[in-house]
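S.,

As promised, the zinc ion run. Input:
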Amino acid sequence: MHELSLCEGVLQVLEENARKQGYQRVKTVWLEIGALSGVEVEAMRFGFDVVTKGTLAEGARLEVLELPGEAWCMQCSITVAAKQRFDACPECGSYQLQVTAGEEMKIKELEVE
Ligand SMILES: [Zn+2]
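Predicted complex:
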């Protein structure tokens, strides 16, 4: 389950930030997850609870903000909505799409004390 290693990555960022900014506890994490990132939100929630046990983020709330996917269609020369990777262009049916948004996963905001 690669979500588990993603959660470990998130925890690492939280711990690094805690050293830099001097907070003791993380209460809420707002995580942006792109629709095309391949990350499963439920697996992320489960993994987050597992990896944060006994850390500064134990019991923290995980708020997930799902970002819509976007792709550039080379045929139409426009940006179209992409619900999944390797979808065809909804306008012309072409598969010559370049994903431009929705592949990322990042921490947007933290509530700490
Ligand atoms: Zn198109």
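The pocket of zinc ion is lined by residues 73, 75-76, 89, 91-92, 94 (CB under 6 Å). Residues 7 and 48 are 5 Å apart (CA to CA).

- D.
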